[in-house]
Amino acid sequence: MIRTVLCYRCETWVMSNKIESALGAFERKILRRIVGPVNENGQWRIRYNQEGMEQYLDMEIVTHIKLRRLEWAGHTNRMENQRIPRKIMEGRIYGKTPTGRPKDRWADVVREDARQVLGGLAWKRTPLDRSDWKRRIEEVKAIAEEDEIH
Q: Which of 77, 88, 106, 123 could connect to 114 by a Cys-Cys bridge, CB 3.0–4.6 Å?
């Protein structure tokens, strides 16, 4: 239930490394709280992060968010050009930009997710075949869950 609330509308997030590490820390903190302490030789101690993750048997929250974002990217990429989400995804904002480094865009983050999670697939072309895109996402989910079990 915590993951459901935490990940509400996560498909549209642009996460920095700082946010990713904060989400990972939050996840480990919650897991330690859920699984509770362990009694070793009459002494109670808080479980280590790895012990909590071993009992959880699911993929990490950041991987879950990246996969959800890729699913949404495929969905919006298959939409008709007149649909509002597709217009927003492909739209450009014109005007004066602030000085300094540009902020990360959602499309850039999705491209990086596809490179990391799916091995560099072209996320603009591949999702057009819905069944192939879904199969690839499901394969990555299965691998991620298998990695968490072992």
A: 123
